[in-house]
């Protein structure tokens, strides 16, 4: 009872905070950056190690520059995520703009569904909110549930405000197969870390062997859906574009792991272009191939 009451109080203040204007939220962000990076040094060690392993060819000063830019952006990302629970459709369309909406209708006219591989890059939460505005057809977002069911339920309701259907990872196959005769778009994270019992494949990602989910590849082959990359780009503070980059049009004709290596490789190229917008504070490389080859 107390846990539920505490969760509801937290949600109430979250909503009040979200009503503040962007200009004020970015003042809060500037303060958050100083606290996280310079005062408490939130996961600085993790970020520094990840950057060193990913970019050994860069100098220490170059990696430190990325590190500082990352923490500045993470502070922005936090306040923007708070804002999204009360943002209007008009404001959302202005700040998260789709560059090639015609591609959705292009594949739908061919009778094809779309699977969008997305990374934890840029403001993926705001892009998930805008996902439901793409088409009147069903849009499905696959997510990893939070440990707190109160916040998990609340956040998913907010993500679905503009029409998307939220589906937990464990329900993905059942849900996608249930609508296989409809034209749908399904978004899945391409850089999520598998659980220890779900590690079946390692690929090269950011200069190191990386355990990856094979869900995108399996779903694409089962449903013959077109695989695209869900590319988000930050234009300036609070403003983004996103677009679908076609990767695989005929998944059933691909070799094993070809789809997985393709979408992971595209994300890697984008990170190499502007690395500060990826989630470096995540412990992405917990598993090593040698631990699974015994």
Morphology call: globular
Based on secondary structure, the structural category is alpha/beta
Strand content: 15-25%
Number of domains: 1
Mean pLDDT: 93
Report Rg: 19 Å
Strand segment count: 9
**Strands side by side in the biggest sheet:** 1-9-8-2-5-3-4
Order of helices and strands: HHHHHEHEHEHEHEEEHEEH
Identify low-pLDDT runs: none
Keywords: Acyltransferase, Cell inner membrane, Cell membrane, Membrane, Transferase, Transmembrane, Transmembrane helix
Pfam family, one: Lip_A_acyltrans
Transmembrane segments: 12-35
Protein name: Lauroyl acyltransferase
Mind sketching the topology for me?
Layout: H1 2-18, H2 22-39, H3 44-54, H4 60-83, H5 89-95, E1 96-98, H6 102-109, E2 114-118, H7 124-131, E3 139-143, H8 149-159, E4 165-168, H9 172-178, E5 185-189, E6 202-205, E7 208-211, H10 215-223, E8 226-236, E9 239-248, H11 258-273
Parallel strand pairs: 1-9, 2-5, 2-8, 3-4, 3-5
Antiparallel strand pairs: 6-7, 8-9
Helix pairs in contact: 2-4, 3-4
Can you describe this structure?
The protein has one domain (2-292). With 294 residues, it is an alpha/beta fold. The chain is built from 11 helices and 9 strands. The radius of gyration is 19 Å and the shape is globular. Helix 3 (44-54) packs across helix 4 (60-83). 34% of the residues are buried. Keywords: Acyltransferase, Cell inner membrane, Cell membrane, Membrane, Transferase, Transmembrane, Transmembrane helix.
Give keywords.
globular, alpha/beta, 294 residues
Short précis:
With 294 residues, the protein is α/β, with parallel strands linked by helices.
């Amino acid at each position: 009872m107390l846990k539920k009451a505490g969760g509801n109080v937290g949600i109430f203040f979250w909503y009040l905070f979200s009503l503040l204007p962007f200009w004020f939220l970015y003042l809060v962000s500037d303060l958050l950056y100083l606290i996280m990076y310079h005062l408490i040094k939130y996961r600085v060690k993790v970020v520094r190690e990840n950057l060193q392993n990913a970019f050994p060819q860069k100098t220490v000063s170059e990696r430190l520059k990325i590190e500082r830019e990352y923490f500045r952006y993470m502070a922005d990302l936090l306040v923007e995520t708070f804002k999204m629970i009360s943002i209007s459709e008009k404001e959302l369309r202005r700040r998260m703009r789709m560059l090639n909406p015609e591609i959705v209708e292009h594949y739908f006219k061919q009778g094809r569904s779309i699977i969008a591989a997305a990374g934890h890059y840029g403001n993926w939460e705001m892009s998930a909110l805008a996902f439901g505005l793409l088409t009147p057809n069903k849009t499905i977002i696959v997510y990893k549930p939070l440990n707190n069911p109160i916040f998990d339920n609340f956040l998913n309701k907010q993500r679905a405000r503009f029409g998307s259907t939220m589906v937990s990872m464990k329900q993905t196959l059942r849900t996608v197969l249930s609508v296989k005769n409809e034209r749908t778009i399904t978004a899945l994270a391409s850089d999520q870390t598998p659980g220890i019992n779900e590690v079946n494949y390692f690929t090269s990602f950011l200069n190191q062997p990386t355990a990856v989910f094979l869900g995108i590849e399996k779903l694409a082959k089962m449903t013959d859906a077109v695989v695209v990359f869900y590319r988000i780009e930050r234009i300036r503070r609070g403003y983004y574009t996103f677009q679908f980059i076609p990767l695989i049009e005929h998944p059933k004709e691909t070799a094993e792991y070809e789809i997985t290596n393709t979408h992971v490789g595209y994300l890697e190229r984008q990170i190499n272009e502007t690395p500060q917008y990826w989630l470096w504070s995540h412990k992405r490389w917990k598993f090593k191939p040698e631990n699974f080859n015994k």
